[in-house]
Amino acid sequence: MKINYKHLSTFIILLIIEIYIGLFVHDNIIRPFVGDALVVVLIYFFIRSFISKHIRFLPVYIFLFACLIEVGQYFNLISLLHMENLKGAKIIIGSTFDLNDIFCYFLGTILIFVYEVKWSK
C-alpha cells in the first residue's frame, strides 16, 4: 500500500481544524455548520490517503456513511451500544439528531466533487 502524503497532510490539517472547532469554537455558525461540512471532507482525505485507485462514487459513499451515523443518533445509538459514559464515543458518534447536519454533509460532499473535478486530475 502506497500512502499519498498530500492527502494525508490535508487530512491532518483538517483534523486539527475540526479539533480546534470542537474545543474552542462555541458559536451558531462555524461549529454546527462548517464543522459538519468539513467532517465528510476529512473522511474523504483520510480514505484517499491510503487508496490511490479512483473510486467513482466515494463521495456518495461517505455521504451515506455520515447520514447513517446521523440516523444512529436519531435512534440513540450511544445508549443502544451502552456507551453513554464514554465521552469519546459521544464526540465521534454524536448524540443529537439534526436534519441540518445532513444538509451540511451534503454541502461537504459537493466540496469533495468540486475538488475531484478541479484538482485531483
Count of individual helical segments: 6
Assembly status? single chain
C-alpha geometry: globular
- Percent of residues in helices comes to over 70%
> Beta-strand level of the residues, as a percent range?
under 5%
N-end to C-end Cα span: 20 Å
Low-confidence stretches: none
Give the number of domains: 1
Succession of helices and strands: HHHHHH
Structural class: mainly alpha
Overall mean pLDDT score?
92
Largest sheet: none
Radius of gyration: 15 Å
Number of strands: 0
What does this structure look like?
- With 121 residues, the protein is an all-alpha fold.
- The protein is 74% helix and 0% strand.
- Helix 1 packs antiparallel against helix 2, helix 2 (30-50) crosses helix 6 (99-118) and helix 3 (58-74) packs antiparallel against helix 6.
- The mean pLDDT is 92.
- InterPro entries: DUF2809.
- It comes from Clostridium gelidum.
- The chain crosses the membrane at residues 7-23, 29-47, 59-79, 91-115.
Blueprint of the fold:
Layout (H helix, E strand, L loop, with lengths): L4 H20 L5 H21 L7 H17 L2 H4 L6 H7 L5 H20 L3
Helix pairs in contact: 1-2, 2-6, 3-6
InterPro entries: DUF2809
Keywords: Membrane, Transmembrane, Transmembrane helix
Pfam families: DUF2809
Give me some keywords for this one:
121 residues; mainly alpha; 74% helix; 0% strand
Compact summary:
With 121 residues, this protein is mostly helical. The protein has helices spanning 5-24, 30-50, 58-74, 77-80, 87-93, 99-118.
